[in-house]
Amino acid sequence: MSDGAPGGGPEGMSRGLVRLMMAVDDAFTQVSREVGLTAQQAQLLCAAQRPAPVGQIAAFMSCDRSNVSHLIDRAANRGLLRRRSTESDGRVTLVELSSDGEDLMQRFVEALRSRFRALLADWPEDRQDEACDTLHALTEVLERGRNGQPHTTRPLAANLFP
Question: Nearest to residue 51, comparing CAs of 96, 117, 7?
Fold first, then answer.
């Protein structure tokens, strides 16, 4: 459809996903700022909700490992993250939230939930449930990637909000 109205099929799905991505990114950025984080710092804290190696966090964030290492350094200096070696291989460093990081992450998640709760307040509960089901199903398809192969660049995505 050339008039900008929603349409079906792959073209309408692509257009809708791009618009959704932009709107969610905007909300994510605004909420990050409200709790005193940049969007990238909030994404890092999301990735560190479960202990993970730097390389896995870099893949999740779609960033170069050295950039993520610098971001981790700054967050650790703020007391939001801590590093520890794995028991099985002392060369592997795991990054995890500190107690201050957990507190800030909870504030961020609650602020994000509150933002979406307010935006969807006029939607009937059944429509909200249907939208959630659709989003989760679509996410599973996208995470599987092409030809049923797992999506390798965001291995932590399924663990974001346990």
Answer: 96
The β-bridge partners of 81 are 97
Say which CATH architecture domain 14-159 belongs to: Orthogonal Bundle (1.10)
Helix, strand, coil in percent for the chain, rounding step 5: 65, 5, 30
- What is the reported pTM? 0.78
CB 75 within 8 A of CB 101: yes
Predicted local distance difference test score (pLDDT) of residue 103: 96
CA distance 6 to 162: 33
CB proximity list for 59: less than 8 A, separation 6 or greater: 152, 153, 154, 155
Q: Would you kindly state where each structural domain of the chain is located, as residue ranges?
A: 14-159
Tokens of 23: 């709107």
Give the span between the Cα atoms of 107 and 102, in whole angstroms. 9
